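In response to reviewer comment 3 from the previous cycle, which asked for concrete evidence that the modeling workflow produces usable outputs, we include below a single protein chain processed end to end. The sequence was submitted unchanged, and the resulting C-alpha cells are shown without manual editing.
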Amino acid sequence: MKRSKRNPNNKKTNELRQSNRAASLYLHYKGEIFKMAKIGSQKKVTVEGVEYTLQFPGHREQVRIQDRCTTDRGTFSSEKMAEELFKHVIVDPKVDWEYFDGNEEKGIEPKDGFNELFTAASTFLRDGK
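The workflow returned the following C-alpha cells.
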C-alpha cells in the first residue's frame, strides 16, 4: 500500500491536494453536492388565496438568521424570526407587520394567513424545499 507523501512540516503535498480535488469533483458530477438547497431557489405557496414566493437566502444567511433570532437569554424569538422571514425569505409580495395587522390611517386592510405563511416560510428556510 502506497502512503501519501508528506513534507517534514506535515503539510499536504500536491499529490494529496489533487486527489482531494478529484474526489470533490466526482461528488459534484454525481450530484451529491447539488442536492442541497441553492441560493435563490424559489417556491410558491398559496395562503388564503394569495400566492407568495419564497426564496432561499443561502446556508450562511440561514445560520445568521437563526443567530439573530436568539435572544440574550439564549431563547428563540418568534417576533425576530418573522421579521427575518419578511426581509429575507418572503420575496413576493413583500410583507410586513402592517400587511397582516392592517393600518386604518394608511388604508391597509389586514390579511389573514400569517401563521400558515410563517410556518411555510420557516419550513422552507430550514429544509430549502
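The chain has five helices and three strands. We consider this sufficient to address the reviewer's concern, and the full set will be provided in the supplementary archive.
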